[in-house]
Amino acid sequence: MLRLTVSGRLVDGEIEVGQVLTLDTAPVRNGPCLPGARLDLIDEAGRIVATAPVSWDGDGAISAVIPDPPRGSTLRIVRDEEEVWIREPAGAPPRVEGLRGTVDGVCVRLTWQEEVYVDRPLRLLRWSADEGETWQLLDAAVEAEEATIPAALLPRPALVQVVVADGFDTAVSEWLRR
Fold first, then answer.
1. What confidence tens digit (pLDDT) does each residue in 70-120 have?
2. Hey, which bits of the chain come out as E strands?
């Protein structure tokens, strides 16, 4: 199921959003609700089309998940009826294509092309050992258009994908078989 997930930290009582990702994932276990805090997805007419509580783990990590999110134009977090964070989409969603891989001894080098319209997109590598039924995180600190990973991190056979998120929309590459 497609899920819009906002994650971050609660620092000195203030919400700091780290990542926003919309991706087909399994259900997420959330902790208790952060009192008075919610995530709203708002459409172009200014109507709230989906909302979710903001959860926290007691150690500072926060998250909010909207399953099967409708198309919206603004995300915001409200706490005690005060808007504390807002994000609007970039001019166009990101694109990622042309994933290629080469094996050089003990490393796998991946390259791809992307179009992203924000300064700091989130780039992830993920792998699947069951033909794409489930995916596992491989690397979350990926630079633009290339990555080198130890081959030992991937079982054989495995599918590998690149995920690029701009904080609102997410693009997933075609898969590459290793």
1. 888 899 999 999 999 999 888 889 999 999 999 887 999 999 999 999 888
2. 2-11, 14-24, 33-42, 48-56, 61-67, 74-79, 82-87, 95-104, 107-115, 122-128, 136-139, 146-150, 159-165, 170-172, 176-177
